[in-house]
Design goal:
Blueprint: E1 3-4, E2 14-15, E3 20-22, E4 25-27, H1 33-50, E5 54-57, E6 60-62, H2 66-71, E7 84-89, E8 101-105, E9 108-112, H3 116-126, E10 134-136, H4 142-152, E11 156-157, H5 161-164, E12 168-172, E13 177-180, E14 186-189, E15 194-197, E16 201-202, E17 214-215
Helix pairs in contact: 1-3
């Protein structure tokens, strides 16, 4: 799938501007992690309600490393411990409620950071979300991929034959075209959710058996 986020006469795939998006985050410090998680959490809930056309970035960089954003860990290794926030319970029990409490001695616990990938995966499972949308994230594991695909696949179906014959390759469950076969020189028209020939090609639907837009090798009305 291609998601286009630049202007131009030719459209290749889905237009980013047609989605509601939570963009990539620039971190000032590691302590931006909780606010970022609150934004992702809120967006997940809203996406589940909307049920379509959502893109979320669980990623961040700047004053934090991408591996920290994804995992909350002190170093990139799988066995690395979570980084401590510097706060403990019971004195700061109300702080960062979604972050884990670790290394406890009775009621005295260290409040550790947690990764966005882990927080999001647990939130999705614990709240039985049904729609996720398109997700961009770093260091994603198999279980997150499987969960995301499993949630989203039911929203889309193979295109009806009428749309397929006109170059559409990606449809909603109600049959609305969302993307076109750019390999065969189709472009997506957002105005009416249909496919058109790319510049330099024309559509030969009645005669074509391969759903291919044909090169304008001769001058003819309608060729671009």
């Amino acid at each position: 799938m291609i998601i286009q986020n630049f202007p131009g006469l030719s459209i290749h795939g889905l237009m980013y501007s047609t989605f509601t998006a939570l963009p990539h985050k620039f971190y000032s410090t590691n302590w931006d992690q909780y606010d970022r998680w609150m934004a992702v959490k809120s967006f997940l809930a809203a996406s589940n309600t909307a049920g379509e056309s959502r893109i979320s970035f669980w990623t961040g960089h700047g004053g934090s490393f991408p591996y920290f954003v994804a995992s909350g860990k002190s170093s990139p290794g799988n066995s690395a411990p979570r980084l401590a926030t510097g706060l403990t319970t019971p004195g700061f029990s109300s702080s960062y409620p979604d972050f884990p409490r670790v290394a406890c001695l009775f009621t005295l616990c260290t409040i550790a950071f947690e990764g966005i990938n882990i927080l999001a995966y647990n939130y999705i499972n614990n709240n039985n979300l049904r729609y996720l949308g398109i997700v961009f994230t770093d260091f994603v594991g198999d279980v997150v991929i499987q969960r995301a695909v499993g949630m989203n696949v039911g929203k889309f179906t193979p295109c009806p034959s009428a749309q397929l014959s006109q170059g559409c390759t990606y449809c909603t469950s109600t049959g609305q075209c969302l993307g076109c076969n750019s390999t065969n020189h189709y472009i997506f028209v957002t105005a009416n959710s249909s496919c058109a020939a790319a510049p330099g090609f024309y559509l030969d639907w009645p005669n074509s058996t391969a759903n291919v837009a044909v090169n304008c090798s001769i001058a003819m009305i309608g060729c671009l």
